[in-house]
Design goal:
This protein has two helices and twelve strands, in the order ββββββββαββββα. It has about 250 residues and is an alpha+beta fold. Strand 1 and strand 2 form a beta hairpin.
């Protein structure tokens, strides 16, 4: 029978499996084939057994791990803290600033800029005020300055995987955020290998360009010695030539 791990307590070495028949089955660590450590919502295959104490699962074999997907909040979050309660920061967008004489307008402008950049939260938000003067008049007004760090936050949600594969989120890139949903894009293998080959080509090109430069520098270094050897040879010829002396 197929089922999903409902719970497992490693310190007590037992847990429960929710079978595809909708009933819960008790299991012990000794009932696991190869004694793997089950994960909640992991798909498993087992032999259902009825005992005096209730239903029990035996000969449990590990199935695919649960699908883990990031889920963002259903509304935009703005906080003065450096974290968002209940969520994990998975991407930093950058520090943003907005100003207006109306604090609500400045705050909404900061929020709009962050959303346009793909963020779903702002942390470390601060608000300062300054007095400014319009032109050469004596009219002073208060300007509100909002600043904060735009981020993408999410909590990871596990769901049973019945497709037989073993997905993880570490092999994905976050593309954008919209309306509480975070889109994930798997890196394309062609792009990866193309960048790898281009890197090799650049390295080979640099090496090929360095070889003539090294040879040229070597020739410049050897040229004075070569000219000196020629001069010495000419001097020797003059000494040995008949009638060269006197």
């Amino acid at each position: 029978m197929r089922g999903t791990v409902k719970s497992f307590l490693p310190e007590k070495a037992y847990g429960f499996i929710r079978g595809e028949d909708g009933r819960d089955y008790f299991f012990h660590l000794n009932d696991l084939v190869n004694r793997f450590e089950p994960v909640p919502l992991q798909t498993v295959y087992f032999d259902p057994t009825a005992t005096r104490k209730g239903l029990k699962a035996r000969s449990i074999q590990a199935g695919p791990m649960p699908t883990v997907t990031p889920v963002g909040p259903n509304h935009f979050i703005m906080t003065r803290d450096n974290y968002v309660r209940g969520y994990e920061i998975i991407r930093m967008v950058g520090t943003l600033r907005a100003r207006a004489n109306d604090p609500n307008v400045a705050r909404n402008n900061l929020r709009t800029i962050a959303i346009d950049l793909g963020a779903n939260a702002i942390i470390n938000m601060t608000c300062t005020r300054s007095s400014e003067q319009e032109g050469c008049s004596n009219y002073n007004y208060t300007m509100h300055h909002f600043e904060g760090t735009a981020v993408v936050v999410a909590r990871y949600q596990s769901t049973p995987n019945t497709n037989g594969n073993d997905p993880t989120t570490k092999d994905f890139h976050i593309s954008h955020y919209k309306d509480g949903q975070i889109s994930l894009v798997r890196p394309h293998a062609l792009v990866f290998y193309t960048k790898l080959v281009l890197g090799w080509i650049r390295t080979a090109t640099c090496i090929i360009c360095l070889i003539p430069a090294i040879l040229f520098c070597r020739l410049l270094h050897l040229k004075p010695r070569f000219m000196q050897a020629i001069d010495e040879a000419d001097s020797a010829k003059n000494v040995l030539r008949p009638g060269a002396v006197g």
